[in-house]
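Usage

Read records sequentially. Each one opens with the input sequence:
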Amino acid sequence: MSALRLVAVLVLAVVAAVSLVVSPASAQDRETPYWATLRFDKVNLRVGPSREYRIDWVYQRKGLPVKVVRIREGWRLVEDAEGTMGWISESQLSRSRGALIVGEGLADMREGPDPASGLRWRAEPGVVGQLQRCRDNWCEIDVAGRTGWVFADRLWGDEEPAGG
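and closes with the structure output:
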């Protein structure tokens, strides 16, 4: 029985070693552009793809959606809602989808994807939420546990980027 256990441990070790080698390479193969969100409350945007490059901007908004437009050795060239571009370490990003309320005035958050459905609440431009799903030009977002449907034109981060 101990020989069988040793073989099982060796097989698991080989699988783990192979996954460590293959996983980073496959992560680099992801087709761009795609959406990501900031993983932490404070994330540095750099002018180049390395810690040697100066910090151009510091985001202080966990969950803020960014569009990843290029990949380079553990770094991601991202674009934010204002069109600012720079490099962020891949470790600072999450693959979860987020959405940012944009436009003028308050955005109605409805019970369903219809302008006639009940009003749940209103969100100001700049509010960040988790993107749940979209249909018929409406998207459901979750902002700190409160969900609602908002007209897609009021969101940045909802569309499917080419290749994403």
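Summary fields computed downstream for this record:
- The CA atoms of residues 4 and 48 lie 51 Å apart.
- The chain has three domains: 1-29, 31-96, 99-156.
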